[in-house]
Structure formats: C-alpha cells, structure tokens
Design brief:
Strand content: 5-15%
Number of helices: 8
Low-confidence stretches: 32-42
Number of strands: 7
Helix content: 40-55%
Strand order of the largest sheet: 1-2-3
Radius of gyration: 20 Å
Number of domains: 3
Distance between the termini: 16 Å
Structural class: alpha/beta
C-alpha cells in the first residue's frame, strides 16, 4: 500500500516527491529510459527521475509484506543499516551456490544472484564487526548460549552499539539477554 502511494506521488508530483526523498529542493529534467539499463528490475514498477546531477531510480512493490513499509516510513533511511556479518553470510550463500552448480547455466545464475546481492547491499550502510563487537562476542561465547557463530556476531554488533535487531528469528536471538529485537513481518 505504501509503495502504491509513493508510486502515485512520484508519477503525479515528481519534483515534490524527489525533494521529499532527498531532503532538499531539486529541479528535474527529461530522461529517456533508453539512456539507462533497466536491469535488474525486481519490482512491479520502475520510475526514473533525473536532475542535472542525479538520477533517482525508484522501484515499487505493490504487494509487499503489509507491515514493513509502514514501519519503515516511521523512520529515516539513515536509521537502517546491515551488519557486515549478514553480508558475509549472503556472500557465502552465493559462493556455495556457484560451487554446487552442475553446469555453466548454474554458474551464470550464481553470479547473477551475487551481482543482485551486491546491488541490494549498496542501499544501506554496513556496520562493521569491530573490536567492540568482538569483545561483546567473547562475552556472549563465555555465557555458553546456544547460538550459531554468525548469529552471535550479529547479536554482538547490535548489543555493542545499542541497536535494535530486526529479525524473524526470535527463537535464537531471544536467548541473548539485553538484545533488543523486533519482527516487523508479523
């Protein structure tokens, strides 16, 4: 529903929408879609808005999980980030997919998945597993919590930085005392 509203606003009031999105006034110019590659499009609708300095590539899903867009709209884009451990896990998954490929088509598909992954991760800043997170990780390990190593690293990053972890995995992350978790898919 939120994407439907944003799609309508960006089509009907493109300058106002771009100004709201960027936080500063912007003058739009004409853009020929032939000037840009439209791949990969992973959305129901694509809108391109161009100014002298920037091209806004807007993709909209008209059937998203109903709660997530509304929850995200209550926050600034700068309120969101992804852990480097999460990125690491996803890259490992791509690596495994490519290594298990039985033919070149599978290898090509694996690299396409990896390319899409890298593109998706460019949207949000990455939060590093730094020395402070490593110390917190050691403390978690000493508590002997039954938690996978990568999950413990993610939890350590969130704990050390005092962040809320958005996850559907309450079963595992709920074991970590003091970790703030929320599931926006329910």
């Amino acid at each position: 529903m939120f994407d439907n509203t944003c799609k309508f606003l960006s089509e009907t009031f493109p300058c106002d929408f771009a100004t709201w999105l960027l936080g500063e006034p912007i003058i739009l110019t004409e853009l020929s879609p032939a000037e840009l590659s439209l791949e990969p499009i992973r959305a129901d609708a694509l809108i391109l808005l161009q100014s002298e300095e920037i091209v806004l590539h807007l993709e909209f899903q008209t059937l998203p999980k109903p709660n997530i867009p509304f929850r995200m709209a209550d926050n600034l884009p700068s309120d969101f980030a992804v852990s480097t451990v999460t990125f690491h896990e996803q890259v490992l998954g791509c690596h495994a997919y490519i290594n298990r490929a039985r033919n070149l088509d599978g290898v090509v598909k694996g690299y396409e998945i990896m390319t899409r992954l890298i593109s998706d991760f460019k949207v949000l800043p990455l939060i590093s597993f730094d020395a402070g997170a490593a110390t917190t990780f050691d403390q978690l390990q000493s508590q002997r919590i039954q938690l996978a190593k990568m999950d413990a690293r993610i939890a350590a990053i969130a704990l050390f930085r005092g962040l809320i972890l958005l996850t559907r995995n309450h079963r595992d992350f709920g074991k970590v005392v003091g970790l703030l978790i929320e599931d926006w898919t329910v």
